[in-house]
Prior knowledge:
The structure is a single chain. By secondary structure, the chain is mainly α. The protein contains 4 helices and 2 strands, in the order H-E-H-E-H-H. The protein has helices at 2-21, 64-82, 100-105, 119-132; strands at 28-32, 89-92. It has a two-stranded parallel sheet with strand order 1-2. Helix 2 links the parallel strand 1 (28-32) and strand 2 (89-92). Helix 1 (2-21) packs parallel to helix 2 (64-82) and helix 2 (64-82) runs parallel beside helix 4 (119-132). The radius of gyration is 16 Å and the shape is globular. It starts with a helix and ends with a helix. The relative contact order is 0.18.
Amino acid sequence: ADFAQSWEGVFTKNLQPLKDRNPDRPIYFLEFGYVDTLESPFDPARGELVERAYIDADANDQDDGQEQQANNYLAFFNTIDKHPGLVEGAFLWDTQLTTRHQWQEFFVKRRTFSIRQKLAEDVVRTTYTKWRDGQ
């Protein structure tokens, strides 16, 4: 909840005044993202490329870092939805174009910004599909 409130503050204190001053200019988030670590709400790049170690402190059979990354995106997307027309797009950081071999040998083994094969992938897919379909 605190993280969602932080995004709400960014939107109301920074983005809405920016849009009010520039009503004909779109606002986009470029190269936006979070590493799949518990610290990512406070430092989005914290732990990037550190070797992945499965942590499930809440015993729900899901990696805590991946849950945090998914929750970060969900908080951001929910805030966008609360302010229709304010932010017109969000482009994700670190969308890897790699071979399957490179992916398996390097990226799967480390904490990264990528959402590929993580819980955040479903959050992003669901949100972007909803936006595409005008919902």
